[in-house]
Design a protein that fits this description.
Pathway: Carbohydrate metabolism; tricarboxylic acid cycle; isocitrate from oxaloacetate: step 2/2. Its cofactor is [4Fe-4S] cluster. By secondary structure, this protein is of the alpha/beta class. It contains 32 helices and 34 strands. The strands form eleven sheets. The chain has a seven-stranded mixed β-barrel with strand order 26-29-30-31-34-33-32.
């Protein structure tokens, strides 16, 4: 029976419809002091009060929120819906199917394993830019995608029929976050039961906060956490600190949303917002278009915040109308937000835990790179900073630099190392010289910018100006265009800009995440060979949000994030070793120099194109039949029925072993004895380093596994596409080509030493040998361990390799919770200490004691390592997380609860 301790349950009539709502002003509290995002969490508690999971006392604790408190109380959050993409969605459906089997093995009814919340899965991560720069690229890539992924797509079609409340958006439709922004999000959610409440969600992708730009509270969680939410399990969290970022002023002429978001990323990462909410307020909010807000929200994981939200205001309503939402929905959003005190008032300032300010007029044209999104570089300094950064990639030695994950050394100039470049001749007879710093990938890609008409049309207009001036892309640059939705191609055609983009090689390669997620496709064989044979440090420039080492392409060491217009500019320049402010991009037919400023479009010209070429009908038409798919999807032969369709011969989908031999009751928590170190890592180790990502290389354990099963190299596909097969993913864990394991100095990739033999081998092979010997494993790391994408396999993989504990200086939020969700113990060194200060080499045998014999999970444990002893902090932060750990993982906990209710 739902509770109503505060008398909040009420009604609201809008457009002749009456809705049940839970009024915030029913509570006896000063709501004006609460940030916008916390008001949404308060409504969530009031609506879900049941006297058991959510109690009056919990709500009272929430109302006592102190913005300045050092620690906050625990709260629960029940999202309105769950958002999935196919890389993370396939293993979620695989786990659901395995849970059905497991609950049947325990004597229960498998049908209880079914989504309790609406869930949308958008297939957007499987298209790879295999073919680029030619008119037929889109058609050929779509054919390759469907051929490679038919096993996965059949499985998803089965899941859509087998599980209630699961909708699947077919491939070649758009990027999950842009589909969410333009179509799925309601802002005010109606659930079919006559209730209206804030639209909230969790997403199986760390860039889910893109929807925060629309005033919708949502963030990325691991697949494990999302699966529990889909099964009706509320998300346990500490009430977050809220950082208020006050905006003022306007963006200067010539700057873009990308420049703004890179500035904010640098500011917030420097300030420190990991695990916090960021909330934008102040007079400058009205000057930020919705598409720019979405771009800022999208980069939330890059600066580390859980969410980065803009409140509902007139710009929100304008965008809903612009994207073709029904008029009745827009009216409901306005009335509900104003009734609940959720409509932005720029004159009112809530109480925030921390305050920051940004004058938009100070933003300048920028890039970020070469390996982290927060490393902003002003365009005026890009050549100089590139040359300084080049040192890390052209030479390194086994000195003190290798104590960290990313080595450094003295800076050679490109001329010193390769004075004339390397001569390359392509298969069609074209010749050119390739040098350090040459741009070999220029990609307009990813959800970050392709939701933004201003920067997309700006790129098209710059392309037109460039072509009219006689400029061309350089022949060694792989150019690609992967918009976030089909609407982009509609307004490109209507504006007459598509021929100019195609003239520069920016042909459509697909609608989905391509280069940004590692699906850049191969370089031409001649360029790839030249790069590898001569150890060239070449560059990618992309309009994405991720540029971590080894992510974009295995041949490319330096990666820069840039706005779509700058991506086009660098395709023409062909090198990062160019000062785009002072050096010409090229020359006109009369020999006169042409500079970037000569072809850069004005803001007025871009806005005119937006007004003249985009209307609401484009969005209505594009999304009218979004669930239908093309003839390939409609004609696909997919399994049916409730029984899990496991195929033992599939290399894409296999039944995972997570629930093998699971009992009805959890085993007691044990201390960890006789553990060895599988990997000792430095700072800023991302989930890209831990989780299998990008291309599968032939001479790796995963590549060998596929070859042994008759899979040809050209059909390896990516790790992301094979996330439904734990055998592939285990072998790809810690296998990133740029990972540097400090217990195997001088190596890169998934290499370690097997102890006590000190034998160098792959991390996978060592882990399997340790398992046969019954030896548990630990991983050592530094600061910001697990930053980056919310990959469930960054936790699943280590668990299957036998990792029992991860001991680091600091964790990023999502990865820490994912480890707990897989039964792996997250530990932090004592404050101010590290593996280096404690003298840990990684060769020790570890004992971790203090876990056994306690009803509660302790706050600290004792760690002993060959005579060294210290107390480590247990980063299990809430009672619910402790329950998950005691059960061996969140899914085991939920599964046992479901069985117990039958």
């Amino acid at each position: 029976m739902a509770g109503n301790s505060f008398g909040a349950r009420s009604s609201l009539e809008v457009g002749g419809e009456r809705y049940e709502i839970h009024r915030l002003d029913a509570v006896d509290a000063d709501l004006d002091r609460f940030p916008y995002s916390l008001k949404i969490l308060l409504e969530n508690l009031l609506r879900n009060e049941d006297g058991d999971t959510v109690t009056r006392e919990q709500i009272e604790d929430f109302l006592a929120w102190d913005p300045n408190a050092r620690t906050q109380s625990e709260t629960l959050f029940t999202p309105a819906r769950v958002l999935l993409q196919d890389f993370t969605g396939v293993p979620a459906i695989v786990d659901f199917a395995a849970m059905r089997d497991a609950i049947g093995d325990l004597g229960g009814d498998p049908d209880v394993v079914d989504p309790a919340l609406p869930a949308d899965l958008v297939i957007d991560h499987s298209v790879i830019a295999e073919v680029a720069g030619v008119p037929e690229a889109f058609v050929r890539n779509a054919e390759i995608e469907f051929h490679r992924n038919i096993e996965r797509y059949r499985f998803l079609r089965w899941g859509q029929e087998a599980f209630n409340a699961l909708r699947v958006v077919p491939p070649s439709t758009g990027i999950v976050h842009q589909v969410n922004l333009e179509y799925l999000a309601q802002v005010v959610f109606t659930d079919g039961k006559g209730r209206a409440y804030p639209d909230t969600l969790v997403g199986l992708d760390s860039h889910t906060p893109m929807i925060n730009g629309l005033g919708v509270l949502g963030w990325g969680v691991g697949g494990i956490e999302a699966e529990a939410a889909m099964l009706g399990q509320p998300i346990s969290m500490l009430v977050p600190k809220v950082v208020g970022l006050k905006l003022s002023g306007e963006l200067p002429e010539g700057t873009t949303a990308t420049d703004l978001v890179l500035t904010i990323t640098e500011l917030l990462r420097s300030h420190g917002v990991v695990g916090k909410f960021v909330e934008f307020y102040g007079p400058g909010v009205a000057e930020v278009p919705l598409a720019n807000r979405a771009t800022i929200g999208n980069m939330s994981p890059e600066y580390g915040s859980t969410a980065a939200i803009f409140p509902i205001d007139d710009e929100t309503l304008r965008y809903l109308e612009f994207t073709g939402r029904p008029q009745g929905q827009i009216e409901l959003v306005e009335r509900y937000a104003k009734e609940q005190g959720l409509f932005h008032d720029p004159s009112r300032e809530a109480q925030y835990s921390e305050h920051l300010e940004l004058d938009l007029s100070t933003v300048v044209s920028s890039l970020a790179g070469p390996s982290r999104p927060q490393d902003r570089v002003a365009l005026t300094e890009s050549k100089h900073v590139f040359r300084e950064s080049l040192a890390r990639y052209t030479q390194w030695s086994t000195d003190e630099a290798l104590e960290e994950t990313f080595p450094a050394s003295d800076t050679p100039t490109p001329e010193e190392d390769q004075p004339n470049g390397v001569l390359v001749e392509t298969s069609d007879g074209e010749q050119f010289r390739l040098s350090h710093g040459d741009v070999v990938i220029a990609a307009i890609t990813s959800c970050t910018n392709t939701s933004n008409p201003q920067v997309m049309l700006g790129a098209g207009l710059l392309a037109k100006n460039a072509v009219d001036a006689g400029l061309e892309s350089q022949p060694w640059v792989k150019t690609s265009l992967a918009p976030g939705s089909k609407v982009v191609m509609d307004y490109y055609r209507d504006a007459g800009l598509l021929p100019y983009l195609e003239k520069l090689g920016f042909n459509l390669v697909g609608f989905g995440c391509t280069t940004c997620v590692g699906n850049s496709g191969p370089l031409s064989p001649e360029i790839s060979q030249a790069v590898r044979d001569n150890d060239l440090t070449v560059v990618s420039v992309l309009s994405g949000n991720r540029n971590f080492e080894g992510r974009i392409n295995p041949d490319v060491k330096m990666n820069y994030l840039a706005s779509p217009p700058l991506v086009v500019a660098y395709a023409i320049a062909g090198s990062m070793d160019v000062d785009l402010y002072r050096e010409p991009l090229g020359r006109a037919s009369d020999g006169s120099p042409i500079y970037l400023a000569d072809i850069w479009p004005s803001s007025a010209d871009v806005e005119q194109l937006v007004r003249e070429n985009i209307d609401s009908e484009m969005f209505r038409k594009s999304y009218a039949n979004i669930l239908d798919g093309d003839e390939r999807w409609q004609g696909m032969d997919a399994p049916s029925g409730d029984e899990s369709p496991w195929d033992p011969n599939s290399t894409y989908v296999q039944k995972p072993p997570f629930f093998d031999e699971m009992g009805a009751e959890p085993e007691p928590v044990r201390d960890i004895s006789g553990a060895r170190v599988l990997a000792k890592l430095g700072d800023s180790v991302t989930t890209d380093h831990i989780s299998p990502a990008g291309a599968i290389v032939e001479n790796t354990p995963a590549g060998q596994y596929l070859l042994e099963r008759g899979v040809e190299k050209h059909d390896f596909n990516s790790y992301g596409a094979r996330r439904g097969n734990h055998e592939v993913m285990m072998r790809g864990t810690f296998a990133n080509v740029r990972l540097r394991n400090q217990i195997a100095p001088g190596t890169e990739g998934g290499v370690t030493l097997k102890f006590p033999e000190r034998e160098q081998t792959t991390i996978y092979d060592a882990a399997m040998r340790y398992q046969r010997e019954g030896t548990p494993l630990v991983v050592l790391g530094g600061k910001e361990y697990g930053s980056g994408s919310s990959r469930d396999w960054a936790a699943k993989g280590p668990m299957l390799l036998g990792v029992r504990a991860v001991l680091v200086e600091t964790f990023e939020r999502i990865h820490r919770s994912n480890l707990i969700g897989m039964g792996v113990l997250p530990l932090e060194f004592p404050e101010g200490e590290s593996a280096v200060t404690l003298g840990l080499t990684g060769e020790e045998t570890f004992e971790i004691t203090g876990l056994e014999g306690h009803h509660e999970i302790p706050r600290t444990v004792t760690v002993r390592a060959d005579g060294k002893e210290f107390e480590a902090t247990v980063r299990i932060d809430t009672a619910l997380e402790a329950a998950y750990y005691r059960h061996g993982g969140i899914l085991h906990y939920v599964l046992r609860r479901l069985r117990a209710k039958q």
